[in-house]
Amino acid sequence: MFTIDPSESLSHAVNTMATKDMGSLLVMQNGQLVGLLTFREVILALHRHGGALGDAKVSSAMDDHPLTCTPDHEIDEVRQMMIESHSRYIPIVEAGALKGVISFYDVAKAVLDSHNFENKMLKAYIRDWPSEDTGSSSHSVRA
User: Fold this and answer.
1) 10 Å Cβ neighbour count for 20?
2) CB neighbours of 129 closer than 8 A, spacing ≥ 6?
3) Mean pLDDT by 10 residues, the chain (143 residues)
4) Which of 10, 72, 117, 135 makes a 20 to 30 Å CA pair with 17?
5) Angle at which helices 10-19 and 39-48 pack, to 10 degrees?
6) pTM confidence score
7) Do domains 1-66 and 67-129 have the same CATH topology?
């Protein structure tokens, strides 16, 4: 999890994101989450400034009210939040403290893993399905 100060240059942020192969940076000030910078915000800043970042600061481009979730959110809730807001990254915050970031990739992988597990369990259940003649066997009674 990488962070950047809002007073840092946007060029420095882009360099960090590119060299670390990251799609987002958490913007932190005095230990508090104050924003989120993703490639979407960088592209919008480039567009506003005619294709050059110049001396723009992170604070001028960041999303200063990023959507957040808590560790208590179910994965389906997070997925719905991401879809509705078109967010690829959501910071996880608990009691004001930053705990991490969840990406759309993380959510997709969790859903896929869950479906694969469910599929495996259903196949195992079907494989062990009792045959119909097991429960209807007739016994002769001798007196």
Assistant:
1) 10
2) none
3) 93 96 94 94 94 94 96 94 94 93 92 85 80 53 47
4) 72
5) 140
6) 0.76
7) yes
